[in-house]
Amino acid sequence: MKFEVAVLGLISASVLSISPGAVADPLPLSPVWHSQMPDGPDTTTKITEQYARSVARDAYFWAWPMINIYNRRLAFSQSPKVGLMNGVLPFAPINSMAMLSDYVKADQRWVACPNQDVVYGAGVAALEQTPMVLQVPDFGDRFWVYQIVDIRTDSFAQLGAMYGSKPGFYLLVGPDWKGEVPKGITKVFRAKTNTAFIVPRVFLDDTVEDREAIQKEISKIDMYSLGQFDGKIKEHDWRTLPALGSPTAEGGSAETKWVFPETFFKQLPEVMKDAPPLPGEEARYVQIGAVVSAAERDPALMAAMIEEAKKAEADLIDPLLQFRNWGVQLDGHWSTTNNNAAFGADYFTRTAVAKSNILVNAPTETKYFYQDLDANGRRLNGASSYKVTFPKDNTPPVHGFWSLTVYDAQHFFSPNELGCYSLGTKNKTLKIDDDGSLTIYVQPTSPGKDLETNWLPAPAGDFSLYLRAYWPKIEIVDGSWTPPSVRR
C-alpha cells in the first residue's frame, strides 16, 4: 500500500511540474515493440469472401497492364524463329528481334492504335537470363526512337533522335546484374524488372523512293544476347522474313485478348516477383500476396476472386477503351496524357493507356492527342462528315513529324478504297488552302477529286481521331498548342 501511494505521488508531482501549454517528453517505446509489429497480414487467419473480392478487384485493375505485358512475353516465347506473325507483325523468340520493312498492315489486331508513319520493330528481353545488346545504326537526318519499357510499361532507357543518341552498341541489364561491361558498349541502361519490351520506330515517307532508301538503315537494327556480342554490326534484310503462325486466339475486330480473369491470380505472384514494389507499394504487395495465398488453399475463395475479376473487366477496364472517359481534358474535347511511359504510381492512367493504346512513347519522345467527339460534343460517326483545319503556320510544332490517324471503334484501321489511314508529315501532296491553312477531310465519301490528297476516309459507325506529335516542340510540351476542334 505504501509503495502504491509513493508511485501515485511521483506521478502527481510529475504532472503538476508541467507548466501550462508545455508538451511532455514522449515515453520511450517498449524494447519489444518492433518485434511485435508483423510485416504483413497473418496468412493463417481465415478471411471473408467479401474481403477477398475487394482485394481482387483492386489488384485486377492495378496489375492489368503488367499481366498484359507478361502474356505478350509468353506469346513471343512461342515464336519458333524470327519472322512475321501472320505475315503482318514483327515476331521473334525471347531475346531476339524482328523488324518490318514497311508500314504495318491494316489487318493486324495484336496492338491497338498502330501507326503508318514509321517502320516498327519488336522484341522481348528476359534480362534474368542475359543482358541484351541493342544495335543503333546511323540514321542521318531521319527521325528514329527505340521504345524500351519494363513490365510496368515504364520507360527505363532513352535512345532516339531527340536524345542525340549516337550510333553504336547499347546494353540493357536487369536489376540484379553485376557483370563486366565489355569494350565497345556505348552506354548501359538498367531495368527495374527483368522483362523488357523493345520497339524501334523509324520514320518513313510515303514514297517509293524512301521505302527503298530506308532498307539500308533498318538492316542494321538488331537485338541479341551479350554472349553474341563481338563488336561487329549484324545485318538483316528484313524484307525476307518468313510468315509465322500466331500462338494466340485472335480477337476478331477487337484487340487480341491478353488478360484473362481465369488465370490472372495464378500469374500474379510471378509478375509481382518480376516487378518489386515501388516505394510505398510494400503494403499493397503483402496484402495481395496474403489474399492470393489464401485463395490457393481455398477453391471457393479463388472462384469468388475470379468472378470479381470478370466484373472488374466489364465495369472498370472496358470503359477505358473510350478516350473520352479519361485523360487530361483539353479544348475542343481533345484529351492527352502527360506521363506516358512514366506512370509510376499513377495506376489509373497506366491501365487506361494499356487498355486503349498500349506501348506508347515517353512525353519527350511523342505527345498523343485523343478524340472521340466533334466540336459540339457529339460522338464521331461515319454517318457524318468532318473537317480538321490547322490555321496557317499552326500545324503541330515538332522537331520530328506529326500525323492525324483515324481508327474504328476498336482502335484499328478500317479498310478503305484509298488504303489511307493517316495524313501528316509523310504525305508530300497535301494541298494548302488559299489562306495558308491546312484542312483534312474526315468523311466516308470523297470530298472531290481535287481534295482527295487531304481525305481521311471515315469508317462506318463510331470512330476516333488520334494526333501524334513525335519529338514535340516546347509549345506542345507546355500545353500552349493544342489541336483544332473537329467540326461537323
TrEMBL record:
Q: What keywords sit in the KW lines?
A: Signal
* InterPro entries for the chain: DUF1214, DUF1214_C_sf, DUF1254, DUF1254_sf
Task: Tell me the leader sequence span.
Answer: 1-24
Task: Enumerate the Gene3D superfamilies for this protein.
Answer: Domain of unknown function DUF1214, C-terminal domain (2.60.120.600), Domain of unknown function DUF1254 (2.60.40.1610)
Report whether Signal shows up as a keyword of the record.
Answer: yes
Membrane-spanning residues where? none
Q: Which PANTHER family match?
A: BLL3101 PROTEIN (PTHR36509:SF2)
Protein name per its UniProtKB record: DUF1254 domain-containing protein
Q: Which organism is it from?
A: Aliirhizobium cellulosilyticum
Per the UniProt record, the lineage of the source organism begins with: Bacteria, Pseudomonadati, Pseudomonadota, Alphaproteobacteria, Hyphomicrobiales
